[in-house]
Amino acid sequence: MPIADVAQSYTDLVTTVFSSTIAAKAWFATAAVVLGTFALAKAHPFEPSAPSTSSAATGDATRGAVVFERECSGCHGPAGTGGGVGPTLAEAGLDTATVTTAVEQGRGIMPAGLVSGQEEADVVAYVVSISTPSD
Ligand code: HEC
Which among 68, 75, 91 is the best mutation to test ligand 1's pocket, defined by most ligand atoms within 8 Å of the CB? Predict the structure, then answer.
């Protein structure tokens, strides 16, 4: 039996039993509206849109290593160990926010936006992974 019918049957029943006063009728009319709204909500469940995991993609450090060697190692050295014009990133203790800001906005002679989208997420994950002190 559809839930709307259940609600209607219930409303009819309690109205019949308790309809001795005008006040009771008014009360049950209100109850019927509430139950009807409830039944409608059940009949048309709200379907949330896909969970809003922000537009920022999830980074993959393994893929990020490849991006890093291509885009960043020229200045930051292989695996971020330094030796170029950029500072050593390995074990520098950088967090995701710091690395993301550096990549998006640039730093000193480091150009902004060398990578974006998935590659950005990947290279940030990689830099954070090599930046985390090993002990
Ligand atoms: C042209 C050379 C160059 C390239 C290419 C480059 N960087 Fe840099 N990067 C630098 C320099 C120089 C700095 C330091 C700037 C300053 O602080 O004045 C820096 C700073 C940073 C910092 C901040 C370090 C800190 O201690 O806060 C991060 C993180 C970083 N770079 C990551 C990257 C990543 C990731 C890439 C590749 C997408 C990249 N860099 C490519 C030169 C470069």
Answer: 75
Calculate how far, in angstroms, residue 133's C-alpha sits from the geometric centre of ligand 1. 18
Say how many C-beta atoms besides its own lie within 10 A of residue 135's C-beta. Answer: 3
Which amino acid, 10? Answer: Y
pLDDT of residue 81: 98
How many whole angstroms separate alpha carbon 37 and alpha carbon 20? 25
* CATH number of the domain residue 80 falls in: 1.10.760.10
Number of domains observed in the structure of the chain: 2
73 in any annotated domain: yes
Q: What is the pLDDT at residue 11?
A: 64
Say what the pTM is: 0.69
